[in-house]
Write a sequence for this structure.
């Protein structure tokens, strides 16, 4: 078995199926596009086991607690791995995490976006280790996210072609 | 005639001249920078035929309707193609759209940013086709955009050197 | 002496030490990650000479003036150069600035984000000159930034390997 998938299995992580969109929503973009040795990763949301968008929805600091938001950020990482698995076939092809842009749907006065996106970063480092998993990041509070999700993250990885 | 420009002509699309800035505004950055086989594209606004910033200005969900905003997102794509044409000489040099970051100036409560940025994505796919035009994307609601424009998009493409 | 560092010295710029985080804050990401000939640069804040986060904190257009914000944007550039120096050893290895994403923590009604991020762009062009320093950019107003800083910028440069 592939190394990264064995690691995920040991951690009890199950990768979700493709995103089940709300009725009437169309997305003309792709979740992962490979160009040369770079895989570009669209903004992802956390998913439930059936592929639907995972809640809680809303603003962090109001409807969503910081702890729930950090869990959602980890869930975003899992969704991204599922998309990468579908596109690359083998997650061991990932040779380096380049960067992530973490976007948090914040209520007025909530500035602890660092701790929220740490849910993503800690998981990636845990799964891929300090060399492959090392990445740069921003963690920014935005005015709104699609469908009022609480956390969205886009990223870029280097892959073996 | 180059393939992509013939396609634009057939669609009735005319590329605008360089951005005409409001009096007193200075922008020290470039709209397209080529490094190796990557063209980096600055955040663009939609333009009028004379090169000025296209309206309506303001927040989507308040002064700007979602339909107007999706039209502006298509207009941003046209502005980006104009900048790429000036920098690359030939739009057929574009071999792949890597990614786009769509930023929507939202009024409180407006979360349908996906549909807005679809105006960009659908146009790029229409012009470049499903292989070259395929791209990843985020569509995020921000607190404000320069000059209070409603939609701004930055992107990255792969080019033939 | 290296060319860029000689230029900084002549300008009276002293690069700050690594970021001194507020008590209890953990950041699992890296400030610069090199993959091939690209250096990815995490979102940075301006720093004081002792490495701590530089103020004023808060929203531009309310607690922070546009002029202070432009100074902070220049300070972000200095912090980024300090991180690049630690990672690359020699700032002359930078062969091109690819892009920057400037994020401004805005008060309602403040849309002059362009002028704020010009503090970054002008400094980079001043230090690196028009060829190496040329870059694309977005300057966006966000709902909040980590620790309520006023300006955060992430970037990407091309380097000699």
């Amino acid at each position: 078995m592939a190394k990264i998938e064995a690691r995920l299995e040991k951690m009890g992580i199950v990768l979700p199926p493709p995103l089940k969109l709300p009725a009437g929503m169309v997305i003309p973009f792709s979740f992962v596009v490979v160009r040369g040795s770079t895989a570009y990763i669209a903004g992802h949301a956390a998913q439930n086991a059936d592929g639907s968008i995972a809640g809680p929805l809303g603003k962090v600091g109001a409807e969503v607690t910081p702890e729930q938001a950090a869990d959602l950020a980890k869930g975003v990482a899992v969704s991204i791995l599922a998309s990468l698995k579908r596109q690359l076939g083998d997650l061991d092809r990932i040779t380096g995490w380049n960067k992530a842009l973490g976007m948090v749907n914040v209520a007025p006065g909530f500035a602890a976006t660092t701790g929220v996106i740490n849910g993503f970063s800690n998981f990636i480092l845990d799964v891929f280790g300090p060399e492959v998993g090392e990445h740069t990041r921003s963690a920014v509070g935005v005015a709104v996210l699609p469908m009022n999700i609480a956390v969205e993250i886009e990223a870029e990885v280097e892959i073996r072609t």
In short: The CA atoms of residues 23 and 52 of chain A lie 11 Å apart.
